[in-house]
Model the fold of this input.
Amino acid sequence: MQNGPFMKPDGTGWQADGTVSTPAGTFQASHFLQRRTDGTTVDFWLSRDVLPVGLVKLRVVSPNQLESKAELVHAGVGAVPKVTATPVPFDREVMRRQLFAAVADHPPRR
Done:
Protein backbone atom coordinates (compact mmCIF):
# COMPACT_ATOMS: atom_id res chain seq x y z
CA MET A 1 0.00 0.00 0.00
CA GLN A 2 1.10 3.56 -0.71
CA ASN A 3 0.08 6.87 0.82
CA GLY A 4 1.28 9.23 -1.94
CA PRO A 5 -1.18 11.63 -3.54
CA PHE A 6 -1.06 9.78 -6.86
CA MET A 7 -0.95 6.02 -6.97
CA LYS A 8 -0.70 4.13 -10.24
CA PRO A 9 -3.36 1.41 -10.46
CA ASP A 10 -1.59 -1.93 -10.26
CA GLY A 11 -4.61 -4.17 -10.72
CA THR A 12 -4.83 -5.25 -7.09
CA GLY A 13 -7.62 -2.80 -6.35
CA TRP A 14 -9.75 -3.76 -9.34
CA GLN A 15 -13.40 -4.30 -8.38
CA ALA A 16 -15.36 -4.75 -11.60
CA ASP A 17 -15.83 -3.62 -15.19
CA GLY A 18 -19.15 -2.04 -16.10
CA THR A 19 -20.86 1.24 -16.77
CA VAL A 20 -20.65 4.43 -14.73
CA SER A 21 -22.77 7.54 -15.28
CA THR A 22 -21.61 11.13 -14.83
CA PRO A 23 -22.93 14.49 -16.09
CA ALA A 24 -20.80 13.89 -19.22
CA GLY A 25 -22.62 10.64 -20.03
CA THR A 26 -22.41 6.92 -19.40
CA PHE A 27 -19.06 5.19 -19.93
CA GLN A 28 -17.68 1.66 -19.96
CA ALA A 29 -15.15 1.76 -17.13
CA SER A 30 -13.05 -0.26 -14.71
CA HIS A 31 -13.76 0.38 -11.03
CA PHE A 32 -10.82 0.38 -8.61
CA LEU A 33 -10.78 0.64 -4.81
CA GLN A 34 -7.64 1.49 -2.84
CA ARG A 35 -7.39 1.39 0.93
CA ARG A 36 -4.45 3.40 2.18
CA THR A 37 -2.53 2.68 5.36
CA ASP A 38 -3.85 5.90 6.95
CA GLY A 39 -7.46 4.64 6.59
CA THR A 40 -8.36 6.69 3.51
CA THR A 41 -10.35 4.90 0.82
CA VAL A 42 -10.12 5.92 -2.82
CA ASP A 43 -12.75 4.74 -5.32
CA PHE A 44 -12.12 5.59 -8.96
CA TRP A 45 -13.43 4.63 -12.38
CA LEU A 46 -11.17 4.62 -15.45
CA SER A 47 -12.34 4.46 -19.06
CA ARG A 48 -10.41 3.96 -22.30
CA ASP A 49 -13.06 6.20 -23.93
CA VAL A 50 -11.87 9.29 -22.02
CA LEU A 51 -8.34 10.02 -23.13
CA PRO A 52 -5.66 10.96 -22.30
CA VAL A 53 -6.23 10.58 -18.53
CA GLY A 54 -9.09 8.09 -18.42
CA LEU A 55 -10.51 9.29 -15.08
CA VAL A 56 -14.31 9.36 -15.18
CA LYS A 57 -15.21 9.43 -11.50
CA LEU A 58 -13.35 9.72 -8.18
CA ARG A 59 -14.51 9.37 -4.58
CA VAL A 60 -12.17 9.78 -1.59
CA VAL A 61 -13.24 9.15 2.01
CA SER A 62 -10.85 10.19 4.78
CA PRO A 63 -10.41 8.27 8.04
CA ASN A 64 -12.79 10.74 9.76
CA GLN A 65 -15.42 10.11 7.03
CA LEU A 66 -14.96 13.40 5.13
CA GLU A 67 -15.86 12.74 1.51
CA SER A 68 -14.54 14.36 -1.67
CA LYS A 69 -15.91 13.63 -5.15
CA ALA A 70 -15.01 14.49 -8.72
CA GLU A 71 -16.92 13.52 -11.86
CA LEU A 72 -16.35 14.12 -15.52
CA VAL A 73 -18.77 16.83 -16.67
CA HIS A 74 -17.77 17.09 -20.34
CA ALA A 75 -15.70 15.11 -22.82
CA GLY A 76 -14.61 16.60 -26.13
CA VAL A 77 -14.42 14.92 -29.51
CA GLY A 78 -12.74 15.69 -32.81
CA ALA A 79 -9.46 17.06 -31.48
CA VAL A 80 -6.68 17.19 -34.04
CA PRO A 81 -3.03 17.03 -32.90
CA LYS A 82 -1.01 20.12 -33.79
CA VAL A 83 2.47 18.96 -32.73
CA THR A 84 4.74 19.16 -35.75
CA ALA A 85 8.19 18.92 -34.16
CA THR A 86 9.99 15.65 -33.67
CA PRO A 87 9.84 14.63 -29.99
CA VAL A 88 13.14 14.54 -28.13
CA PRO A 89 13.96 12.43 -25.06
CA PHE A 90 13.59 14.17 -21.71
CA ASP A 91 16.89 15.39 -20.31
CA ARG A 92 16.70 16.65 -16.71
CA GLU A 93 19.98 18.58 -16.99
CA VAL A 94 18.89 20.44 -20.15
CA MET A 95 15.61 21.38 -18.47
CA ARG A 96 17.42 22.60 -15.35
CA ARG A 97 19.70 24.84 -17.45
CA GLN A 98 16.71 26.22 -19.37
CA LEU A 99 14.82 27.01 -16.16
CA PHE A 100 17.79 28.71 -14.52
CA ALA A 101 18.47 30.71 -17.70
CA ALA A 102 14.84 31.89 -17.75
CA VAL A 103 15.06 32.97 -14.10
CA ALA A 104 18.33 34.80 -14.75
CA ASP A 105 16.74 36.68 -17.68
CA HIS A 106 13.66 37.62 -15.62
CA PRO A 107 14.52 37.94 -11.92
CA PRO A 108 11.58 38.23 -9.52
CA ARG A 109 10.39 41.77 -8.76
CA ARG A 110 10.75 42.98 -5.21
Summary: DSSP finds one helix and five strands in the chain. Residues 92-105 form the longest helix (14 residues).
